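This entry is listed below:
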Amino acid sequence: MKKSVFILCAALSLGACSLFPPPYKVPVTQGNLITKEQLSQLQVGMSESQVTYLLGNPMLKDTFKPDEWHYLYTSRYAAPDTKKSDANDLVLIFSNGVLTQIKNN
């Protein structure tokens, strides 16, 4: 009798956990938030310092390809009012300090 009452109480108490709302998760955004205005100002032929002034420092500079800059943006647990970047994965390729190619994935 005691064992069945204990099992019944345990089952009811564990089932009651689903009645609570899910816990709040803080939106986590990482990377460079790039707007359409910034993308429209970005042009082939700009110097590295001009690109840095416009977009900020890149999120990733590859050690083996120093002329390739990656501007990444990720967002986890985003709320509807969380700002979103217009370029989630922007790759800029330089040659002799001058921007030669823009890849917006």
Observations:
- Strands lie at 28-31, 60-61, 68-76, 89-95, 98-104.
- The two ends are 65 Å apart (CA to CA).
